[in-house]
Amino acid sequence: MDKRREFESIVREYSEQLYWQIRRIVLTHEDANDVLQNTFLKAWNAYDTFNRDSKMSTWLTRIAINESLDQLRRNKHLASAAAEDLSVAKGLLADDYFDGDATEAMLQEAIASLPDVQRTVFTLRYFEEMKYSDISKILNTSEGALKASYHIAVKKITEYFKQRD
User: Fold this and answer.
1) pLDDT digits (tens, 9 = 90+) for 27-71
2) How far apart are CA 66 and CA 143, in angstroms?
3) Does 23 map to a domain?
4) Is residue 53 part of a domain?
5) Start and end of every RNA polymerase sigma-70 region domain (predicted)?
């Protein structure tokens, strides 16, 4: 199989999974699509250097998470990201792509209020059910630091719910 067809197969296999990983971090459909496209462009450009000993999903997720964090940084330059993220989260109920209820929307608001790294760690651990060892490879940080970030994120989310109860 030639490189192009092989990569097209990879795009078909991983697009939906990566989209939802990205979407939980950047929150909007439009940003998620942009980040997904950038992810696959970077993967295509680096495809020849991909170490086949690694898992394709881990490599692509690492690119996607880095691109998501870059997108959040770009958004911070355009507006106050915390206020923007919270308003985006509040608009989820009106979003055609959102199929959750009010509790899910409140969870998304709570997640949106987290700092970028805590939001990313929480998303990968809670929604994607990734092992800390895999997250460590993706974010290039220690498992201990990830566990601490996740624990702090859970406490903040719990506190967010208590304040609104």
Assistant:
1) 788 999 999 999 999 999 999 888 877 789 989 999 999 999 888
2) 18
3) yes
4) yes
5) 10-76
